[in-house]
Structures are given as structure tokens and as C-alpha cells.
Amino acid sequence: MSRVLIVSNRLPIHVRVRGARAEVQMSVGGVATGLSSVHASGDALWIGWPGETDELDEEGRAELARELASRRLVGVELDARVVKGFYEGYANGVLWPLFHSMLESLPLTNDDYAQYVEANRRFADAIIAEWRPGDRIWIHDYQLILVPALVRERLPHARIGFFLHIPFPASPLWRVLPEREELLRGLLGADLIGFHTHDYVRHFAAALLNVLGVEVAVDSLRWRERQLCIGAFPMGIDAKAYSRLAEEESVREETQRLRSGPEALLVGIDRLDYTKGIPRRLLALQELLDRHADLRGMIRLIQVAVPSRTTVQVYRTMRQTIDELVGRLHGMFATASWVPVNYLHRALSSREVVALYRAADVMLVTPIRDGMNLVAKEFVAARNDEDGVLVLSEFAGAAGELSGALLVNPFDPRAVSDACHRALTMPREERRERMRAMRERVFKSDAEHWARSFLEKLGEQAATAEPRVPTEIPITELARAPKRLLLLDYDGTLMPFGVDPLRTEPDEELRTLLAGLAAARDTEVHIVSGRPPMELERWLADLDLGLHAEHGLWTRPRGESTWTMARGLELLHRGSIERLLHDFAERTPGARVEKKSVGYAWHWRGADPDFGFRQANELRLVLQALCSNLPVEVLLGNRVVEIRPHGENKGTLATRLVSAASHESRILALGDDRTDEDLFAALPQDSVRVHVGPGDTVAQWRVDDWRAARRLLAKLLDELDSRVD
User: Fold this and answer.
1) Among 270, 489, 608, 678, which one carries the catalytic annotation?
2) 90 in helix, strand or coil?
């Protein structure tokens, strides 16, 4: 039977160590409640950290393990050192503020990434130990971003889903991260990657394009021969449970007690976090009381701030700020019989929370950034009376679903103040109409619907996944062959791309590597590049290499100094084509036109990736129409659009080189973009064809990037040197 392995940073329990024994209580709210229906059904397991259990003795640990097993929970052991660096240091010290677009809260330095990697490896180990064929693995949230790829490495055919419960930042912010590439590759180990909103999906797609050069087609992409899907899956709540709780007698009594005074109640219930916007909310209340003196004594804000990450300095500072703002409000407006704010810095029970939801005339949910914010949905579910007004930040994920809320910009205290005044004076029939619309949405798209839709999509996605290409590149076999023919692309394969293609000359490491390979016995090395002859001449002429420029149009054989053209070709330097290219370059900041011997290249590596990609596609279509009667082809390459003679490409060059080589030669070809696919397709089937980076390919093998390509060649050189020894 197919199981679901739920994986989250914390198990859905609270473990309290008393003496040498542990007491286990189930958690409520958030991920724990959202996934409870999945965990309760079938043979699901939940994998996560149980909390700090260092004080337990051996017998206590064994007893806790038995208790977890009885609840179908699997604990991941993390010592205090790893927890501090992984959870407090990197996950919450770096990723949390960055994902919430708060760069000012990033630390000046951070040395905790190694602990983040270590913790993710331990979670991956726990998953692999429990997995069996047919299981679906569902990994959750920013603490475990590397886990999908770590599991994929060892379980290549597993069905893996990942869901992010917080916002995904805009691409320019994502690029701030030093570990940006590793984290994206971690996520791409999944078959399905889910977010709360389409905005976050777009941000993720832009980051893939800008950082890894991976293009997303609507909601899917290819990565290492797998088809991945990304999508928006807005998380819901157990709406029926909140509705039932709202009708319990103890809750109704508490609601009546709260509403016994003359004031209208504004309510805010938040975790004490700098993303929740509590200080700005208090400033909005000050604005409201300043501008509407008639409301003094007639309204009251009940603000609950549940303690969070109390050992972190930024949270202690924030608590102090809130204390000061509450004190200032009391100093400005309080009387002997009335205070504007009741501030509770503690956690409340579920019944106390729902009583506040029921009592609220206005519910304030005004985070400055939030992935979804389930408090807004809980408030709506608890209002069986179809009354109350929700004032909701437009920067909360829930804003896209709750059309009946009054949406506000939380950075504008006057706008929040105006929304509160409108809510307090809104006619009852309008309040009911708005609340009905929100309740319909909340009950229809509840937590069970969210989980079911994600897992169904994961099942569909995994069913269409293609087998992974072989991972072991036969370097040893290549080294043992009687002779070798190496065909190597340059840009993106041996060297990283630069914004200015004219400044990407080989470094000393690459020159040493190429010189070593060229000097190896029975090994012939050719550089096959799209660059013009003079650049390859200037950089590599002193090495014993075959040089081939403009995708094979120009050739300079090993040991010779003269370049020859492959065959006589009609010049394609036509005024209309050149004017069109320059026109597109002028309209695309960062793009440039390169005039080649018989063609052109329109480079857009220096342009904004999103805009440049759209412009390149449009240019390709216009050129194809303009050149429809010419013997040319228009090719969209890696950040370049090329116009080149039809039939003269790396594939025709490869055919000539293979024909001239010894029949004993084993061939290795490395390339990274569409032009190299012509070369791969022209080679014999027993050739070792290696695609560098993402993208579709006919090659049998793939490596991540130019660094990995160099390591591959260095391994070959080591094998060759050892055979000589």
C-alpha cells in the first residue's frame, strides 16, 4: 500500500522532559493541523525533530521512541550544536528574513550553513531509512530545502514533493544569498514544488532563470532529464473544527464576557515576529484615535503576541519596541477607567483564541509579509454569526483568497486607520455579505482539500516522470581506450559565462588542464566554440589543440597557424538583418550585437533575464520570418540568438573530425547549449556525450556546471597519468 512520508522540521508534538521521562502532547495549528488528515489516514509516517531531549536517560529515550512509534512518528536526532546552527543560525537567522524580504535583518556574517547542510543530511538519512517503493515523500518548509536533492541522489525513482509555507522572495533578493545555487538545486530534487500563491511561483521561476539559467514553461520545467512541476496550492485550515469549537458553551460564555463592556473590540493575534507588523498596527491605532477623538473610550485593541524565539536578540528588541509603543498609547489616551490596548504576551488556549475571534468587531491581520496567514481563515471559520470585519494586509498570501476582507498596505498607518474606521462604521448587511463570501471560500478550500490536491498532483507528476540518465560517466573506460578524441565547447562548458563575452579569457587552471590533456599519449583535444577565430587564437594558440571557431565554420588544425573556412559560403551581412539586430539591442539594455564572418550573434547576457528572454524570443520569430527565403537558420542559444549558414554547424564539423580520427579513438564531447546538440547528434553511439548544466539534451550524461566539467577532465587526466606511471 502506498504511504505518505510527511517530513517537517518539528514533529506535530510537544515533548516536555520532566525528570528523566518525557511527556508527549499533540500540537495544534499550522502545519500540524493542516496535515493531520493525511497523517490520520492510511499508513502515513511523520518524520521530524521531536525537540530537545538531551536530559533523558537511556531508558527515557527508549520509552519516548516507543511512544513516537505508537503514534507513527519518527524522530530525527539533532544535537544542541546542530540545532543552534541549523535552526537558529541559518534557517531563522538568514532564510527567514530573506524570504520575507527583510534584508535589514540579515546578519553581517553567518557561519552556520555547514550545520544547515548537516541537519538536512540527517533528515534525508531518516527518510531513506523509512522509505519503501511506492511511498510518496512530502517535505515541508524552508528548514529542509536541501533534502529533496539529497534524497533524490540515493532514491532516484522516489516520488518527492516539497511545499514552502513562507513567501518566496523576488529574484533580486534571492540573489543576495551566497548559497543561492545550492539551495535551488536542493529544491529541484523534488517532482512537485508547491507555494501558497502564484506570486511566489513567479518569483521562484525568475530565480531559476536568473541563477541557474533554467526556463519554466508555465508550470513545468526540465531538470536533469526529469520533468518537474511547480504550482500554487493555497493552504487551508480545519474550518469545521473551528466552527464547532465556536459553538461550545465555554467559548460562548467567554465571548459574552469579552463583549460585556461598552467598547467595540479590535483584535490582533500573532506570533511575536518582526514580519507580523505589530508595531505598525499600534501606530495605526494611534492614528485612529488621533483623527477620531469620538472613538476614545469606545474601542479597545486586544493584542495577543505569542512569545517566539526568545533567545534571539532581534526578537527581544522587538518585544521592547512593542512594550514602549503600548506604553506610549496608554500615556497619550488612557483614562482612569479605560485603556486603548490590552496587551497579552503569552500563548492562549484554542478556546481562548476562538472566543476572541467570536468577540471581535474588527480582526486585524496586518503582517508586512506572510506566506499565507491562517489566523485570517481561522477568524472567518469561527464566525458562525456571519458578522465581524477582517482588515487584512495585501502582503499576506490569504489576501488573494479572502475577497470580503478590507485589504490594506500595512506600511501606511493612515490607510490601516481608515480601514479600521470603515470597519467600525460598516452596516451590518455589508458585514454579513462580506463574511458569507469568505466563509464559502474557507470551508470549500480547507486543509483536507489542500493536502489532497497536492498529493494528487504529486501522484500525477510522478507517474509521468522519465527515468534518470546514468550517473556514472565512464572515465576509466575512456582512459583505457587505445586513443581518445576530445571535443570541448568553451563558454558555459570550460568557462563561466561573463556579462561581457570579450572578457572571458581562460584562467591558469584551465590552461594547465588543457595543456596536460593535449600532452597525454594518444589523446587529441579540440576546442569547438562559437567565438570568432581571433579570440581563440589569442587565448589558446600556444597550446597543442585543434581550434574551431564560429561553430566549426573556421578551423585551425593542431600544429598549424593558418585558419581555413570549411567551405565557400555566401556572406549574410545584410543591412536589413543588421539594422533589426541593433534595433533590438537598443531596446534591450545590456544586449549587444556581434558580427561574425558570415553571420551574427545577438547576445543578451548583460540584460535583465526576464525581459531579455522575452526579447530574444520575439527577435527569433521576427528573424525567422525575415530570413525565410535565405539559406540560413536562426538559433536560440544560451543567452544568445544566432543567425548562421544553414547546414554548417558543430555537427558537420564533428563528422569531419571523427572521419579523420583513428577508428580506435573513443570520443568524449562536452557542451552546454543548443549548438552542442548538433555535435552530440552527429557522434557515434558509443561516444561519451556529456551535457553541462540544465536543459534538454540527447547526451547520455550530465554534469552540473563548468566546475563539474573541469573536474571531469581533471579526473580523466589523472587516470591517464596513472596509466603512464
Assistant:
1) 489
2) helix
